[in-house]
Design brief:
Strand order of the largest sheet of chain A: 2-5-8-1-9
Distance between the termini of chain A: 40 Å
Helix content of chain A: 40-55%
Largest interface: A-B, 39 and 38 residues
Strand order of the largest sheet of chain B: 6-7-8-14-13-12-15-16-17
CATH architecture of the largest domain in chain B: 3-Layer(aba) Sandwich
Number of strands of chain B: 17
Structural class of chain B: alpha/beta
CATH architecture of the largest domain in chain A: 3-Layer(aba) Sandwich
Strand content of chain B: 15-25%
Order of helices and strands of chain A: HEHEHEEHEHHEEEHEHHHHH
Largest sheet of chain A: 5 strands, parallel
Oligomer: heterodimer
CATH superfamily of the largest domain in chain A: P-loop containing nucleotide triphosphate hydrolases
Shape of chain A: elongated
Number of domains of chain A: 2
CATH class of the largest domain in chain B: Alpha Beta
Shape of chain B: globular
Chain lengths: ~260, ~575
């Protein structure tokens, strides 16, 4: 990767990330979906010159999915490293996205890695791998997620340095949207204003609000020649709900907040 | 677009209005030709073209967002229309400018931003309005400020929340002004009488009175709630011989309404005398009770309970001969090699897979905080104290096991005023605040058990999100409210539990320290799992089987209900 992924700091989170990395501490990123957690990690991995290995966690993710397993090939067994083991060997940054989705017995394997020991025991191989210099464990989760998720175990949280990310302040978000999508600041500002209006709606019915990611998607449609109202309907309000009444209300919001062509 | 005030148009603009104000608002049409205004929760919209309406909503939304309509502030405008108008002229423009960031780019907003403002905060605007300096009139699109309405709406919200008087259990002779829309209750003076005698709190005497005489006032003579008996008879006569009477309402979903006490849910109530539901009979609202207890209350010790409840969890299950898995299934691998050596195509299912072990249980604890819970229990302390302690221990144990837990108190004051006090919702943390709220629950009001159970089931249905759901009701098993007693109340409570189980929600009713006899409990809780004891510690040894039974019976009921809906024969073999 030669170009730094675009990321604008909100509030000193880069300094904390780099300090934690230098000290060999594990990092917990908290924030709503689409606020830039993954992009932040990518930018940090680039700045620190480390490979980034990302694992999207899901509820059937087992410890062996992370660590590795024996497979049978012909008459022999072959050990295959999991992504976490690869990162430990190579000294890469291992990013476990949405870690609460994983089973609790799975998250326990990261415990010896994420405290002062920095070890990965692989019992099937009978070895304990020390983490190579440069290894860093980063996990993310979305505390407001409206599904039936378990919280992170306290023993897991206690091993992490927490960095809380939210949607950026309006001025930064305008720059982000404009830069990412290649649209002028006026368009970006209208979309961010619309996003702010949707985020202020506490009315039931919307599970998630308009994230920075969907605002960028709308701006990219605008950059490709779609009128701004249609772009916002397609990328911002459309994905939010299927409910007819809510959709009508959101359409009205789009018409009100976005300048008519 | 001209907005005519049809529900559709109002719905469309509702989100716009809420986004501008930064709080949920409802829209209603204003009276003919009257200027529009808001009371803080509802915006009364004048008729007009879209640009004017947007400008009006922007002004009113900005006023709400900037705190210009705080009830404390507008109190000084009460009864002074001229001052209110001057205040709107100054503060309207100022609020538009202050809130410009969150408003759409309307001409009015841009004008406000360009303007010089003589004041910098609502208080200063108020001083200006009260002064004598001449001020320009507000533009007509601003609408109006109606201080009386704002204060009335705010008072309605506060009144709906439990007052300190409520919490102190002091509701002596507080009769409910309901007789006009429910004439059935006029014929049952005993309830009112016993309330007068006992200051609203049910004592052993009042129970005895109610039990002894309460049934007589109830409609053997057909007046106590037998809604439209003639209509009912006609309807039945039209049914064919093979028609099955639908004993459950077609939909258990409540209708949601906005009451003067805030957002509410309307539930039907079972009328055992008429053998039918009374539609939309009870209104349930939810509140956050104040935290007056100590938030640093000691964490309960739930070790023993945790061990017993943990056995409910599904054990780890290893599945052999899987196409993928964590480990190699040695037997399968050896077999596969033999098959391969024999020259055949070996199977690929040679792995062991451990299946999901996560618990998927949500528990809602409903605590009876009606006046009767102030009674001395058989053991030491009042009934509510036992219920509170049991709740704290249960919630802590279940949370520790990774189950989702919610805790609500319930009480009622007539069918339009069933309150659920939100101690902890499913998504709240079990922290000092929740323990503080729990500690602050004080007995008052009556027990409309059916409505509380129906709303509890609705909460589990909509907010729990897990496969298995359990409703734990802590109550003395003595339903009683205005027009809600005796056989009628018992039948409705029993019915509500049966409905919940048909939705697949397990029900467990625990009666702690109460003096209600087993026979009555059986009538109220029906076939739902129930138990009573002097204190919760006595129940702990049985808690595992009780939970298991409640969950299993709900599972069975749900399957039966499903089959019935599909019209398939009911298979009983192995269903338990």
């Amino acid at each position: 990767m030669t170009v730094r992924p675009f990321y604008l700091a909100q509030n000193g989170e880069e300094r904390i990330f780099k300090a934690a990395y230098a000290q060999g501490l594990s990092i917990l990123l908290k924030g709503p979906t689409g606020c830039g957690k993954t992009r932040f990690v990518e930018a940090m991995a680039h700045d620190l010159g480390r490979e980034l290995i990302t694992v999207a966690c899901h509820e059937d993710l087992t410890a062996s999915d992370l660590v590795g397993r024996f497979l049978i090939q012909g008459g022999d067994t072959v050990w295959v490293d999991g992504p976490l083991t690869r990162a430990v060997r190579a000294g890469a940054i291992c990013y476990l996205d949405e870690v609460v989705e994983a089973r609790q017995d799975t998250t326990v394997v990261i415990h010896p890695l994420s405290d002062h020991r920095r070890l990965l025991p692989i019992d099937r191989l009978g070895v304990t791998l020390p983490a190579a210099p440069g290894f860093c464990l980063v996990v993310s989760y979305n505390p407001g997620y409206q599904s039936v998720l378990k919280d992170l175990k306290d023993s897991t949280r206690q091993r992490m340095v927490a960095i809380e990310l939210g949607f950026p302040p309006a001025d930064i978000e305008v720059k982000v949207v404009s830069e990412e999508a290649g649209v002028d600041l006026g368009i970006a500002e209208s979309l961010v204003r619309l996003g702010g209006a949707i985020r202020r709606l506490e009315t039931g019915g919307l599970r998630e609000v308009a994230s920075t990611r969907v605002l960028i998607a709308a701006a990219r449609l605008v950059a490709a020649g779609v009128p701004i109202g249609d772009a916002a309907r397609a990328a911002v309000t459309g994905p939010l709900t299927d409910d007819r009444v809510l959709t009508d209300g959101l359409d009205e919001l789009v018409d009100t907040y976005l300048p008519m062509p | 677009m001209s907005v005519t005030g049809t529900p559709d148009d109002l719905d469309r603009l509702r989100l716009v209005a809420s986004a501008m104000a930064g709080r949920p608002l409802t829209l209603k049409p204003a009276a003919d030709d009257a200027p529009g205004y808001t009371d803080g929760r509802v915006v009364y919209l004048p008729s007009g073209e879209r640009p004017e309406l947007l400008a009006f909503l922007a002004v009113q939304g900005a006023l709400l967002g900037a705190g210009s309509l705080d009830p404390g502030l507008v109190r000084r405008l009460s009864g002074r229309a001229g001052v209110a108008r001057r205040y709107l002229a100054v503060e309207g423009w100022r609020a538009l400018a202050e809130m410009a960031d969150r408003l759409p780019a309307l001409p009015l907003v841009e004008a406000a931003v360009r303007m010089d403002h003589p004041s910098s905060c609502p208080e200063q605007s108020l001083e200006l309005a009260l002064g004598r300096r001449p001020l320009a009139d507000p533009p007509p699109v601003f609408g109006a400020i109606r201080p009386g309405r704002i204060r009335a709406a705010a008072d309605a919200v506060t009144a709906a929340a439990p007052t300190p008087r409520d919490l102190a259990g002091d509701i002596a002779a507080d009769l409910l002004p309901e007789a006009d829309d429910d004439e059935a209750e006029e014929t049952i003076p005993l309830g009112s009488l016993s309330r007068l005698l006992n200051g609203g709190i049910q004592t052993g005497l009042s129970r005895w009175l109610a039990k002894k005489f309460g049934g007589r006032g109830q409609p053997e003579d057909g007046d106590g709630g037998a809604e439209l008996p003639m209509g009912g008879a006609r309807a039945v006569s039209r049914l064919g011989v093979n028609t099955r009477v639908c004993l459950f309402p077609l939909t258990l979903q409540p209708t949601e309404i906005d009451t003067d006490r805030g957002h509410g849910w309307c539930y039907p109530e079972w009328d055992a005398h008429a053998g039918r539901y009374r539609a939309g009979w009870c209104t349930v609202t939810e509140f956050d009770p104040p935290v007056t207890g100590s938030t640093g209350a000691a964490r309960p010790q739930s070790g023993d309970l945790t061990r017993r409840l943990a056995r409910l969890a599904v054990a780890l299950e290893r599945h052999r001969r899987q196409p993928q898995g964590d480990d190699i299934d040695l037997d399968a691998a050896v077999d596969a090699r033999i098959v391969a050596r024999a020259g055949l195509t070996p199977p690929e299912d040679v792995y062991l897979e451990t299946q999901r072990t996560r618990r998927s249980l949500s528990v809602l604890v409903l605590i009876d905080v009606s006046g009767s819970s102030a009674e001395r229990s058989a053991a030491a302390g009042d009934v509510l104290r036992h219920e509170r302690e049991a709740t704290a221990v249960l919630a802590d144990a279940l949370r520790g096991l990774g189950d989702r837990v919610a805790v609500f108190g319930f009480r009622s004051r007539g069918r339009h005023s069933v309150s659920l006090l939100r101690v902890k919702d499913f998504d709240d943390q079990l922290t000092g605040t929740a323990y503080g709220r729990l500690a602050a629950l004080a007995p008052s009001g009556y027990t409309r058990l059916g409505a509380a159970i129906r709303h509890g089931a609705h909460i589990l249905d909509t907010r729990a999100g897990t496969e298995r759901r359990l409703l734990v009701v802590l109550s003395d098993g003595f339903p009683y409210d205005d027009g809600y007693e005796g056989r009628y109340a018992e039948a409705d409570a029993r019915r509500s539990l049966a409905e919940a189980r048909r939705q697949g929600i397990g029900c467990l009713c625990l009666s702690l320290g109460a003096t209600t006899d087993a026979e009555t409990l059986g009538r109220v809780f029906g076939t739902a799992a129930h138990a009573s004891a002097a204190c919760f510690d006595d129940l702990i040894p049985d808690i595992g089987p009780l939970f298991r039974r409640a969950i299993a019976s709900a599972e069975l009921q749900r399957r039966v209900a499903q089959r019935q809906r599909r019209g398939a024969p009911i298979e009983t073999k192995g269903a338990a």
